[in-house]
Amino acid sequence: MRIKIINPNTTVSMTKAIEQAGKKFARARTEVFAVNPSIGPESIESFYDEYLSIPGLLEEIIIGDKDEGVDAFIIACFGDPGLLAAREVTKKPVLGIAEAAITTARLIAPNFSIVIPLHRSRRLSEEVVQMHGAKDRCISIRTTDLTVLDFDKNLEKGLNVLEEECKRAVEEDGAECVLLGCAGFVTFVEELQQKLGVPVFDGVSPAVKLAEGLVDMGVETSKALTWSPPEKKVITGFSEILQP
Amino acid sequence: MRIKIINPNTTVSMTKAIEQAGKKFARARTEVFAVNPSIGPESIESFYDEYLSIPGLLEEIIIGDKDEGVDAFIIACFGDPGLLAAREVTKKPVLGIAEAAITTARLIAPNFSIVIPLHRSRRLSEEVVQMHGAKDRCISIRTTDLTVLDFDKNLEKGLNVLEEECKRAVEEDGAECVLLGCAGFVTFVEELQQKLGVPVFDGVSPAVKLAEGLVDMGVETSKALTWSPPEKKVITGFSEILQP
Amino acid sequence: MRIKIINPNTTVSMTKAIEQAGKKFARARTEVFAVNPSIGPESIESFYDEYLSIPGLLEEIIIGDKDEGVDAFIIACFGDPGLLAAREVTKKPVLGIAEAAITTARLIAPNFSIVIPLHRSRRLSEEVVQMHGAKDRCISIRTTDLTVLDFDKNLEKGLNVLEEECKRAVEEDGAECVLLGCAGFVTFVEELQQKLGVPVFDGVSPAVKLAEGLVDMGVETSKALTWSPPEKKVITGFSEILQP
Amino acid sequence: MRIKIINPNTTVSMTKAIEQAGKKFARARTEVFAVNPSIGPESIESFYDEYLSIPGLLEEIIIGDKDEGVDAFIIACFGDPGLLAAREVTKKPVLGIAEAAITTARLIAPNFSIVIPLHRSRRLSEEVVQMHGAKDRCISIRTTDLTVLDFDKNLEKGLNVLEEECKRAVEEDGAECVLLGCAGFVTFVEELQQKLGVPVFDGVSPAVKLAEGLVDMGVETSKALTWSPPEKKVITGFSEILQP
Amino acid sequence: MRIKIINPNTTVSMTKAIEQAGKKFARARTEVFAVNPSIGPESIESFYDEYLSIPGLLEEIIIGDKDEGVDAFIIACFGDPGLLAAREVTKKPVLGIAEAAITTARLIAPNFSIVIPLHRSRRLSEEVVQMHGAKDRCISIRTTDLTVLDFDKNLEKGLNVLEEECKRAVEEDGAECVLLGCAGFVTFVEELQQKLGVPVFDGVSPAVKLAEGLVDMGVETSKALTWSPPEKKVITGFSEILQP
Amino acid sequence: MRIKIINPNTTVSMTKAIEQAGKKFARARTEVFAVNPSIGPESIESFYDEYLSIPGLLEEIIIGDKDEGVDAFIIACFGDPGLLAAREVTKKPVLGIAEAAITTARLIAPNFSIVIPLHRSRRLSEEVVQMHGAKDRCISIRTTDLTVLDFDKNLEKGLNVLEEECKRAVEEDGAECVLLGCAGFVTFVEELQQKLGVPVFDGVSPAVKLAEGLVDMGVETSKALTWSPPEKKVITGFSEILQP
To answer: Which domains does chain B have, with CATH numbers?
Structure first.
């Protein structure tokens, strides 16, 4: 089974960390590989960034579907950018990492908090929580002063800042599970898990496990109506790949 | 890995069918076994039935946790009876089949209908949909004139009745996915899937796949507060097993 | 008129206090009597406890319905355990004390807080508030370090702890009414009412008054569908009383 | 105990019917009397009517509170006009009949429909259902071609029309209880109850029973903040009675 | 185009300030004039005040509709009193200032706080937020110790108190826009806007702009059903103007 | 004042019709002009189309903001694509036409239906209704067999199909206002308005009027946090214009 993880930003170091996280709990015969589009923003912190990451992301979905024999896709950004569109262009299962983290958290904890990098991205997280029907289970979203790239550049400082917010989530908000709301946080999971005493997740590992399960079952995205393939039409200014 | 499926009613033929469904997509090294409690109702169609199935169910959870080296539990009744209590008595993941079906449906379809046996059990399904945060995604619950045991006794008639309701769900309600809302329906999945043209699930197979994923990741139920072990106290009139 | 109050735990001292509270505002010709099942937990603080209290509780409902000429039933635990099942096995009105407290609070205050014993039981209270449609009116649920039995054993300490949380509910949360979320708290109502300056309720007294009203009107539980009697079927391992 | 029912419209025949309904299940020592304001509309079918009924209604509340030794008030129009204001001008309990009907229905049925006179008043009913937190339990609001006064003038025709809509509520909508959404419908309750086979209520009788219960308990409206007495100020153009 | 603003309280100084605010951004050819009813309360802080302001307000709507050639109406109290009734008695657009402020805030900010005079009026604001579908966008309602008339009498103190609450809304609650929840606050808008660094609105100016837009488009209130003219009927004790 | 309308698809005939609609109710001194990006899909019917329209749309926003002296922007596609991102890249007000239509409908009708081209796009409309907080007011979304371009090519057939669905919305669903859910429908508004007897809107005209109002007031998008400018970062593969 081949699972393609797409880091929708263009920062290669993050793509590598994500691939590692994806492989961590993958089964022996599951081939996990991560890519990032060649076009798009180097990190995703605003709606603007998010939308500009989607064309490159969709290219990677289509390539994976047509040419790479991919069995399932994972979108590795905690805003789940382009998720609904990705499901239109392939029958293969597509999972967002926010979706995977939230889905998994619900199975093992009565509530959860999400910790994300930058204050400004709070609304992006609120939208994703709402989309996955978890508004009642998400008791807080905590944010920091650091950007996505700050965390990538200074791991130690990042870990400290993150730990502090996670602790507040547990102690002040009553979180019984903490979700790390950035694909770049995969490197911090283990250390935080040990320190916090409640389950801590990133979304990449859960997404891989969910994807394996769907592929095992032979389940594919419903093409009945909403996620049927996009109508044939001219789309100007984008690569051949993106022509429906 | 050992996954214990508990059919919370006492009808052995259903337990066998459930075990088969549980094994269908399980991995080679996953040992799946299904049991039913020796005490409780022979089918579950009312809140009354549901509550009387729970003590026996909880015994099976506790035995599995203490004595059988079980890695994950599945409660195989579409009302997910006793789910929240089961999570209190073991650290091992516990999944309900309604939870598993709904969780999986959300990943591959924009909405779904649930088809259950008896008209009277509608509210049980409404509660379970609400509990799993899927009220916005569940566009209809369809019910029949047949009891759980009717379906067990007359497979052909059952299939016909079920097919009719499933078709109505798709054609009249606009369902893009259909969930079979009874553990006893596992035998009908394949045939209905072929006839309907939209994804059709029972909850047993998805639950096994979700369970495998959680066990692979080493994730356990959060014991922070809500689902911590029940307080030590005297519980009169129940078996030694059920003493906390 | 005969009203049977069932304390679903097995602690006899609580049953007595509950009976007294039930009689406090009952009319002269209303016979109020309280019992507790002989089986079940000695207090209810977890979902586990709650479910194990229900079989004994249902026995008492059935006995009351068949043999004791009871006109209405009250379930005297603030989680309203087994309420929906109890309504299936008798046509006589059945009320939960959380239901009664919440129902009554809505009639005389724009919002309310609930104060319950143990931190871990918060989710039980959240569920019961949701079930009775009062999520918008319940502005906080406050919890303490003491168990149900702690309160029973040390009344003075209990009162102090309770008073403190009630005050916080009023002063910090803006509660305009306080509900005491444990049947065992009936002994504290009067003193707290005097100290707090906002209405304070337990659920037992309101339940008796609601029950009297329903019986006066000759109103019975609708047997149209959802709460019709459980289907005839074999239920193994429980008393003859519980066979439908 | 004295319970004052205020029919907020000026149609005396309705006031009489309401008084009779109020006395029907009242206890021997409960004195129930109904009045209507001398000012206001002869029936209430629009928001316009509703608002113009409120000053006269509030006068009757204030007179009842100051001069008539009233222990509890009932507002006998299914839109519960002025309910929140009435609670500001007296400490005595005030109940709306929609509130009472909805509150009581919840205790004995899993859902209900409301049948009201005129199509145009649907939104008034929607608002009142929302106000009392019963949106999830109210499965339909059914309306007719007849005005409030049409029902008052032609009882036989009224009954037939009403019966038809009630039947639709039960058979098409699945209502397990029917609420008659007009104080003028009190005369039809018994006949409809017999014909429909599910509980049928007006709101007047339940309101009397709820009021009796509150008075027995000595419970009064919380004056903590929201429903504290209106601030002293000049109110021009209204009677002396209405000066706060 | 003539826009009639109705201050529903009888305080003339507020009416003048409101008229000024209404003219501030009105177009050259838009004639804006403000009146207040001769009957009703001098300020609106309770449900009681609100309801007693409505008859006088409705008179002004009807006069404006029949005799004054008014093209659109604005109700200048932040509780939007009588809004739904006003829409019944005229086809001309009617806007509430809470509605206008909330509507406009949604267009330029992801969330907002409302600051109102008196603590007790919080629920009035909650109702109006709910009515306009903005519960998810309104992150806090802040209140003060001062009455509406206190603000009118002591502008400097009023400004200081208001500034403090607005700052808390921004700094503690994370408000990205602040709505001044009292028509009397129109005088403070500019100063607060400068001090706060986030958009600050009253509702009067936005209401005028929305009204101009609707009139330009020739759009009128739908008379299909809900807001069709009130039925002809006798309404006793009110002026000739108010007879439907 | 300059208002720039951006038709986010590349079909020039639609852009022209939109411009005309935009000018219809604009004030004499309001300069309205419509453009479409040179890149993107020729119509928008899927999430895929929607996302691929956004980069070109954002370019037009940025150009308008920096080089064209634009005072307000309108996104003329009923899914309001890219709305939240557009608000990040300019301080000038940005309105979506779904937002404008829904906002305006709420001011003059108690409910509304939306009629859109293709069945498959229903979910896009559901999302936009949810985003603008109008779920309770939108009583139906009606869809047709025709694509956006079908309507553009065969106006007469389009009108007939549209009229039929609009009538169903009014007669079967009880819509008191109908919103035409496609920018291409601007040509049908007048004729449908005359035939239906309830208010009928497209979103373009209302958006222009809302924009004029905001500009008159000098109101700009809050830059406090959520919609502050995107962080400086490298965005590969897009035009210079799109570099933050």
So the answer is: 2-96+205-242 (3.40.50.12500), 98-203 (3.40.50.12500)
Calculate how close chain D gets to E194, using CA atoms only, in Å.
33
**pTM exceeding the 0.90 threshold for the entire prediction:** yes
Q: Which residues in A lie closer than 8 A to residue F122 (C-beta atoms)?
A: 225-226
- Amino acid sitting at position D77: C
Q: Which two tokens stand for residue A141?
A: 């979203």
CA dihedral (D146, D147, D153, D159) positive or negative: positive
Amino acid at E47: F
Q: By the CB < 8 Å criterion, does F241 face chain A?
A: no
Give the start-end residues of each E strand in chain B: 2-6, 31-35, 40-41, 72-75, 94-96, 112-118, 138-144, 178-180, 200-201, 235-236
Q: Does A230 touch chain F (CB under 8 A)?
A: yes
Are residues B186 and B158 in contact, defined by beta-carbon separation less than 8 angstroms?
Answer: no
In angstroms, what separates the C-alpha of A152 from chain F's closest C-alpha?
A: 14
Q: C226 in contact with D at a CB cutoff of 8 Å? A: yes
When CB atoms are compared, the residue of B99, B174, B209 closest to A213 is B209
Q: Which residues of A touch F123 (CB under 8 A)?
A: 84, 226
How far is F5 from F183, CA to CA, in rounded Å? 11
B 58-77 → A contacts, CB under 8 A: none
Beta bridge partners of residue F75, listed in sequence order:
F6, F96
Count of C-beta atoms within a 10 Å radius of residue C110 = 22
Encode pLDDT of E199-234 as tens digits: 999 999 999 999 999 999 999 999 999 999 999 999
- In angstroms, rounded to a whole number, what is the distance separating the alpha carbons of residues E229 and E244? 8
Give how far Cα C189 sits from Cα of B109, C166, C180, Å: 52, 11, 8
Which helix (H) or strand (E) element contains residue E191?
helix E189-196
> Which residues of chain B lie closer than 8 angstroms to A93, CB-CB?
107-108
Q: Is the ipTM of this complex over 0.95?
A: yes
* Nearest residue in F to A86, CA atom: F48
- List pLDDT tens digits, range B18-55: 999 999 999 999 999 999 999 999 999 999 999 999 99
Residue B20 Cα, gap to closest chain C Cα (Å): 25
